[in-house]
Amino acid sequence: MNCDYLACRYNSFLLTNPKALSISRLPLAGVAILWTAAYAAGLHYFFALDWQTAGIDSFFFNLLTLIALVFLNGIISYLPRSAIFQIVLGVALVFAFSSQWIAQQAVRQLIPDTTYHDFVNQSMPVRWAIGFILLLASGVAFVFYTRWREIAEAQARDSDTRLLAREAELYKLQLQLQPHFLFNSLNSINALILIKPDQAREMVQQLSDFLRLTISRADEPWISLSQELAYLQTYLAIEKVRFGHRLEINVQVEDSIKDFTIPTLVLQPLLENAIKFGLYGTTGKITIQLIAESKDSTVLIKITNPFDADMQPSARSGFGLTGLQRRLYLLYARNDLMQTTQGNDTFTVNLIIPPRS
Predict the structure, then answer these.
(1) Of the CATH numbers 3.10.129.10, 3.90.550.10, 3.30.70.120, 3.30.565.10, which one belongs to the domain with range 196-353?
(2) Are the C-beta atoms of 280 and 315 separated by less than 8 Å?
(3) What is the pLDDT of residues 150-167, one digit of tens each?
């Protein structure tokens, strides 16, 4: 799981949880109160206004500025995208002028002192400038915040879509593996019914056990190597009924890696491929070797089967190898985990399984 994904999920959490966002707004109320108090204190100490006059002045001028700020941020979402900063500049200028003018008229009615009226008239350019700067800064910040929300929502949707598509494809690949093996087994049973009915019945029982295990693990994408090997023995029992003494499997696994976590059904398609191409066109006994050993922090699995290039079916690779290659990429985001090598009379698949992240 990468950092981009975690960032997308965090953004998605903020966007879908209003309480989390409301908590982040709490400091803004405190800032507004402190600003109003500081504004009144400045009027009292620097301009010799009494506390009542300074408090009324600060309250009305800052209240109207705050109302203008709320209206400005409210309409930004409806502004056209083109030239939005120029529009915000113009709207902030209009709102600053109108809010300060309304505040001026209000305090003139509440405070009849003509000396104070003269002070207000002289200070209006400064008040307009302060109101304009506050509104413009807030508007620009809100524009960037709105853009961030849109980008975060798009990233969260894209992340969710990719995650769902990945899980759906993994599930599809796993479902495709079951019919693929089932059809091959049913064809073998059909061939044995007339000539070897006892073996056909035995194979039906083995196939039933195998499918029962498959269904029980349908929701388990990861299992231990020892569980996969036990699962594999059920599969090999079916193939041995089909091929009898012609098929021998030599399995060598280090004890230290039997608890290593691997993807479910990662070995069965490899052995099926080895049996298919190792036995094709031959009548004698063959030996397929499976070796699993630790290498650094990974597990290296090597499966080797006899191979005669002149006695192979036209299709060199079936669904098993291609499907497994795709599954490994979806699980580990790597294309170098499975490699095949062909010698003079052998075919080897080298599979690297990294530790589960």
Answers:
(1) 3.30.565.10
(2) no
(3) 888 878 777 766 666 666
